[in-house]
Amino acid sequence: MAALGWLTPRRRSATARSVLAGEASAEAARKSTQDLPDAAPGEEPAFPVPGDDRAAAFFDLDNTVMQGAALFHFGRGLYKRKFFETRDLARFAWQQAWFRLAGIEDPEHMQDARDSALSIVKGHRVSELKSIGEEIYDEYMAERIWPGTRALAQAHLDAGQRVWLVTAAPVEIAQVIARRLGLTGALGTVAESIGGVYTGKLVGEPLHGPAKAEAVRALAAAEGLDLSRCAAYSDSHNDIPMLSLVGHPYAINPDAKLRKHARELDWRLRDYRTGRKAAKVGIPAAAGVGAVAGGTAAAIALHRRRR
Length: 307
Description:
By secondary structure, the protein is of the alpha/beta class. The chain has helices at residues 16-34, 70-80, 86-102, 107-121, 126-141, 147-158, 171-180, 210-223, 240-243, 256-265, 275-278, 287-290, and strands at 56-60, 162-170, 185-189, 191-194, 197-202, 231-234, 248-252, 268-270.
């Protein structure tokens, strides 16, 4: 990887692999975009501030911008295209439910699922998965975009600011979604490829938790952004490191832990769910499933245990 010297020395809780994952994601995001075409007294200042080119917005994807997990929807599309068998889909569905109910991540379980997901994309061309991603967006994702969050992103764009998705989903899929929504680009999990073919390995680790914060920090340094003037949006307490980086953190459709944290720190909250769904904020938003991502088709668990 090139240009990995963006970070300045600091104390941090992120692991070396988190830093590597964050920097790799920031680099991939910048490359993809290079390839694409005053308030009255007593009033709250306008936000986002029009014309502030040192400000940007960072949006988590799953259950923040889009209902459900992008990887699950992508997995449905891959199943439809015969990438794996029915028993694998059943295992993945069970795993998604387990993460949502338990709200914790078993390291061995996560590693097994991650390795299995990577084994599916190994040997496939990056271009092939990108093309499939375009089709799957139309089939399963487009209708699941939250209008309220989309409007928030558009407000930043209308103010002349850059808007990035930040997700544990594969960077190629994240870039498809960002482009379809008219956003600047996306930070996502980066899988190693040689000659345009996936090797079955990650660069660093999935872009999850502290790794997201590292990606945002690296991108901000490279793009000359002032994080104190930036905004970040997420539904999950796992993204508190990313939300804490910026001057304008927002809790969107928050889980119980994030809602509590946001209220304690007086962060802004938005909830675009129905009353019934909002009442279930204690159920985590499948963040653990996002961390299973690797490469582009990492929505399927336990593939290598096929019988």
